[in-house]
Amino acid sequence: MLLPSRRVAAVAPFLAMDVMTAAAARERAGGSVVHMEVGQPSAPAPRAVIAAAQGALAHGRVPYTEALGLPALRERIARDYRDRYGVDVAPERVVVTTGSSAGFILAFMSLFDAGARVGVPQPGYPAYRSILAALDLVATPMVLRAEDRFAPTAELLRAVHAQARLSGVLVMSPANPSGTVIAPDALRALCAAARDLSLPFISDEIYHGLGYDGLPSATALQFDADAIVINSFSKYHCMTGWRVGWMVVPDSLVRPIERLAQNLYISAPYLSQVGALAAFEAGEELDAVRDGYARNRAILLDALPGLGLGRTHPADGAFYLYADVSDLTDDAAEFCRRMLAEAGVAATPGLDFDPAEGAHHVRFSFAGSEDDCREAVRRLRGWLG
Ligand SMILES: Cc1ncc(COP(=O)(O)O)c(C=O)c1O
């Protein structure tokens, strides 16, 4: 029998996928499911994106691109930093990637040697831990607290570094699973602390563009020109399966990352890059999708307290609510299994995001339709009410 490497053995399974499998089985058996377990928009890619990709496909030739991406796309992304945040980014510092997922691999590999410890938020996106483990790096949790809105702080970073001697730090805003936006001043302080401690600062900004009546999403580049910013067309632009994202990196990392990208995957998919370029023309369509999430969020926030789920951080951005279910259960995984089996609502147990405290939380995604959200509330009322 072939045994997997020690590194791969350290990669945890994704419980959300188990929920998806159980939900699919229920649907095959004729049951209905409201899907709130999946972190992806139900809306299709914008019309302009589809038209651009169809146009390119009609030419027949779908080539590799340069490893760092199509020059026109890199330029357009760079321009967006000026338009959106007032930050000057040279197009040469933009790297087009196969989703932000590839961005993490490229960032971690280019910055850290085996055994290095990287501070990551907990609760947080589980792939950070898994990718670090797969690369023989160590994810060091920065434990976030509900009373701090699940936002990391400069003090927390200093405290974790004092204990663990980090080699780098990663933060995300808006966050998965809490939806927390790090306030601009707090992000500035985090960047300053990282610089003080000589730690590379990696900022996952994949949910930018998805904010609700609250804090503006600042980019780390406003506060640290050397921050490594990772972003994607998956979420705001509704292009999950196109697998295209980007990074902004300091000059010193461009060539190392180019060498890695050339060897690891040659280039991000050409058609997806052509589509991504057109996504910048689709602001109106995409803002309308975002306004739909805002309505979904309002429906859920209105209903949850009456369901015993009042201790839910209201999500400044992204499309998740991270509900504290400790009044109802101390086993969120079992709670999610029963919620699916008995109410036909699929959601993700918190253990995916937080191995320590996740048994008390459930993540609901509100990236689906308004009808889905209303139906979920109706079913949960019947089940929990
Ligand atoms: C916080 C966060 N970062 C990164 C990703 C990966 O996205 P992609 O590889 O599609 O860009 C996700 C996906 O859910 C996420 O929630």
TrEMBL record:
Keywords: Aminotransferase, Pyridoxal phosphate, Signal, Transferase
Entry-linked InterPro entries: Aminotransferase_I/II_large, AspAT/PAT-like, PyrdxlP-dep_Trfase, PyrdxlP-dep_Trfase_major
Any coiled-coil regions, as ranges: none
Pfam families cross-referenced by the UniProt entry: Aminotran_1_2
First and last residue of the signal peptide: 1-24
Molecular-function GO term, any one: pyridoxal phosphate binding
Catalytic activity: L-aspartate + 2-oxoglutarate = oxaloacetate + L-glutamate
One GO BP annotation of this record: amino acid metabolic process
Occurrences of domain Aminotransferase class I/classII large (ranges): 34-380
Cofactor(s) the record lists: pyridoxal 5'-phosphate
EC annotation from Swiss-Prot or TrEMBL: 2.6.1.1
Domain of life: Bacteria
PANTHER family: AMINOTRANSFERASE, ASPARTATE AMINOTRANSFERASE
Family to which this protein belongs: Belongs to the class-I pyridoxal-phosphate-dependent aminotransferase family.
Protein name, UniProt field: 8-amino-7-oxononanoate synthase
Species this chain originates from: Methylobacterium hispanicum
Gene behind the chain: aspC_1
